[in-house]
Every structure is written in C-alpha cells, then in structure tokens.
Amino acid sequence: MKNRTIIILLVLITSSFTTSNRVETLIVKEIKKSFDIENFTKESIKITNELNEVLPLKLSETNFFKINNEGSIIGYYYLGSAYGKAAYFDYLVIFNKDLIVSKVKVLTYREDHGGEIKSKRWLKQFNEKSTDKNLKYQEDIVGISGATISVKSMTNDVNKLFKTIGILIKNNQL
Amino acid sequence: MKKLSLVLVILFTNLYSYSQDITQNSGQRLLNTNVLNGVTIGGYAQIDYNEPDGSTVGKFDVHRLVLLFAYKFNEKVSFVTEIEYEHVKEVYVEQAYLSYKANESVNILAGLMLVPMGIINEYHEPTTYYGVERPSIDTYIVPTTWREIGIGISGNLDDLSLKYQAYVFNGFKSYAEGEGILRGIDGLRKGRQKGAETVVSSPNFSSKIDYYGISGLRLGLSGYFGQTQTDDTTIEASTIGVSMVGFDARYKYSNLELRGQYIHTILSDTEDYNMLTGKDLGSKMTGFYGEIAYNFNLKGEEKLTPFVRYEKFNTHAETEGSLPKDDSYDRNELFFGLSYKVADGAVFKVDYNLINNAVLDSKTKKQFNAGVGIWF
C-alpha cells in the first residue's frame, strides 16, 4: 500500500514537470485540427500605440496572430488570461478568416475551483459566434452551477476580445 | 485564544498591506498575461433578522462574516484561507489549505477543507442560494459548514465534463472527557471538530463526483464513510460508524432555476453508544428538499426572484434497540420568499417559513426572516 502511494505520488510529481512547451504544443495542435492543415505560419499584427490604448484588450506581439497557410490568411488566434475566483486562467480563441469563432480552449487553469469551464461541451457554445455580437450570460452562454465566477469571467473576456476586434476592423487593421 | 488573536492581527495587517498592493497591481496584472503569483482577497457576509410567530422576540444577527484570502506562490502552488466570524464574536478558520497542481486534471489539496456533501456545504455564499438561512437539511443532516483537516485530490476531466474529489479527512468527535457528544435532534452536528485541536482515532473517506455535460444541468453524487473519533479508544462504544450518501441536482433553463438534494445517512453501533452516553442518537437520518425559483430581470444587473422550497428530514428515521423514535425530529418545512439582487454580489432577501413535525396535533410554527447577503 505504502509503495503504491509513493509510486502514485512520484508519477503525479513528475507529470507536473512538463515544460511550458505544453502550451505551445497545444496551440499548434488546436490550430492544425481546426483548419485541418499540416503546416502553418503565424504572424503578429502590428498596430500603433495610440490605437492599442483604446482597445479593451491590449495587443502585443505575443498574444494576437494571423494564421497563414500556403500564402494566404486562413484565420487568427488570440491568447488571453482571465481571472477566476483566486487565480488567472489562460485561454485560446481561434477565428476563421471571416473572424467567426471556430474554437475556444482553456490552456491553463490554475485553481481547484471553477475548472468546470474547461469542459469541451461548455466551450463549444462560443463556436460560430461573430465578433459583432455581445454575448449575454445565461442567454447566449449558459452557465455552470458552481463555476459562475469563471463562466462570467470567460464570457466577459470574450466580449472584450470581440470589441477589440471590432475596433481593429473599423480601423482597417484586419 | 490569545495566540489566535495575535495570528489574526498579523493576518489582517498583512491583508491590509496586500490590499494596497492589489489596487496598484490590478491594472498591471490585467495587462500582463503571465502573472503567476499574488494575493486575492474576497469575502461574504450574511446579516439576518428572524422573527418567530407568537410571543418570542425577533433577533438581528450578523450571522456570518467571512474574509477570504488566497496567495499564489507560483503557477502550481497556492494557499487559500477563509477566516469566519459567527454572530460577531466567535472566530473560526473556515478553510485553510495548500493546493498543489500536479497536472491539468489533478490538484493535491491538504489542510482544513470543506467536505463535499450536497450543494450548500461547498457553495454556501449567501448570494448563491435562496432564502435568508441555508436549507435546514444542510444544518441538521449535513452539518454545514462542515470542514475538517485532511488530504485529497480533485480535478476536472474536460472530455467527460466531470469533476472528481476524493479525500481522507479527520472525522466527527463522538466522545470526550467521559461524555457523549452526538445527539438525536441534530445528529452529527455537535461532533464537528472544525480543525481545532482535533482528536484522531480513525480516518474517514469522502468523495464527490459532479457531472455538468448537459447544458444548464449539474448533478452531484457524494459519499462519506468512516468512524467517529474518541479521546478514549479503550471504550469501543464511544464511537459509531458513519455512512452518508448524497445526491444533488441543479438545473437552470432561461430564467427558471430548479434545485434538489437527497441525503441518506446510516449510523451504526448507536445502541451501544446511546447506552454508554445516555444520548438519543438515531441510526438512520434522511432528508430531501426541492426548490423552484424564477428570475425576473429588472434594469441592469438587478433581478427579482421569488422562490419556494419544501424540505423533509428526519434525524430519527430509524433508531436502534429500545430507543423510541422521537416524532418531533421528523420535520418538514416550507419556505417561500423573495430575493432582490441589486448587484451580482449583493442581495436583499425576505422569506416566510412554515415548520411542522410529525408529533400528533402539533402546531405549525411560523417564522419571518429578512436579511442581506453579500459576496465579493
């Protein structure tokens, strides 16, 4: 019994030593799966500081990208962080070339409460939503009892992202 | 007690200084997607007015005031604690545990934690349930706020939309200094050790599985099994066996909210225990409630929600040996009331409560409750 406990603990601890490559690998995998492609290149989007200041979510060279495949833009992706009950969680939003959501995934969830929002079924609710929409909690996005804070936080952040993209479109940046 | 006060002073001084940092950092944090550590503060409070029908006077009470703070050491390690004031003057630590995230679906937790049983014990912030007071089953059958020291694992299985929790906890104390502690009217409630200088004589196992794969629905199955604790292990009759199983369901469809819970508890060896201690502990305790609520959306975040809840519970569902069943422990309660949510974390509540028991020709007791609930 004791040996088994030690082995289980060792497995758990070593499995936690996964590098930050885990996230990068996940992103690449999700993009390939979403567009059914083997290769792609990412390209950051450069905007002026003045424009960045008015955006609800600030863009950087490491959080918003165009996805290129065989010389043309096939989509976009955004990496964000939102706050749960006591910690940030990181998420990925993939858009198609028309800026319709094709996938939302929680990449890292850091607290033991509210992890329900990682559910694939729940996250599917964001699919097919376009950025001109303001998502309403309970109407467009059905909540999960016991994970309300994280649900609202995720919904709010996606709304902010939609607004950000709306402003970029208006300013002919996309 | 002095020590506790000192700890609290230190905690609050730190809390104050941290809260300053938080306001300064929050803006920066939002800009930075890679913040891995820091302090979170939060809390909840429940302030009640209870007025029983008849000659008894009403009472105002700051029933609970709880301050949460959490510290995140790094990507994987955090500490969560809640300091609770009950009725203004009683101070407890409601939760204090270290969480280590082993991987994306396994957290290792250790310390003073909530036992996952039914809905309210884990989700007890007053803005998350209807009625001024918590459901009565979650007082008499599930002794909320039920917390003990233990170690366990929890996590979410994302493909299956499942949350699992499994712990080894310290159990209820049934016997100390030559006296029995547990009794018929509220079963295990008096036996909670709450992490304060607890006695340990045998481990207890607790587990819960939640399923949330169907839109709007959450189902939970909880189990708790073990033996009570005693300060005198030479007296076998000073402990009893505890097996508690709970099923709960929460469903939201548009503005409609439904909730239900069933708890089934078997207590073994109560005949010997009652003989030893002169107590009247039952051998089976059961209870259920069903609740229906409808949200009317007012302007902005404001919501007006009427609700009805029916509860039926019995701490003497069965008794062992010569102990007669006490019909006054076979209770049912009907609540109807209104919640007026003025902000996401702030609510005004009123309700009216009809309390009955199975005693022949017993009169219905009535109670009016009003209160405020906050959570931030």
CATH fold-type name of chain B: Porin
Radius of gyration of chain A: 18 Å
Task: Report the structural category of chain B.
Answer: mainly beta
Counting helices, strands and paired strands, the structural category of chain A is alpha+beta
- In CATH terms, the superfamily of chain B is Porin
Low-confidence stretches of chain B: 1-34
Largest sheet, strands/sense/barrel of chain A = 5 strands, antiparallel
Beta-strand percentage range of chain A: 15-25%
Query: Number of helix segments of chain A?
Result: 5
Q: Let me know the average pLDDT of chain A.
A: 90
User: How many domains in all of chain A?
Assistant: 1
- Major sheet size, sense and barrel closure of chain B: 16 strands, antiparallel, barrel
Order of helices and strands of chain B: HEEEEEHEEEEEEEEEHEEEEEE
Percent range of helical residues of chain A? 25-40%
- Separation, N- and C-terminal Cα atoms of chain A: 60 Å
What pair of chains forms the biggest interface?
A-B, 40 and 44 residues
CATH class bucket of chain B: Mainly Beta
Instruction: Give the overall silhouette of chain B.
Output: globular
Portion in strands of chain B: over 45%
Kindly list the characteristics that best describe this protein.
heterodimer; A: 174 residues; alpha+beta; five-stranded antiparallel β-sheet; 5 helices; 5 strands; 36% helix; 23% strand; B: 376 residues; mainly beta; Porin; 16-stranded antiparallel β-barrel; three-stranded mixed β-sheet; 3 helices; globular; disordered N terminus
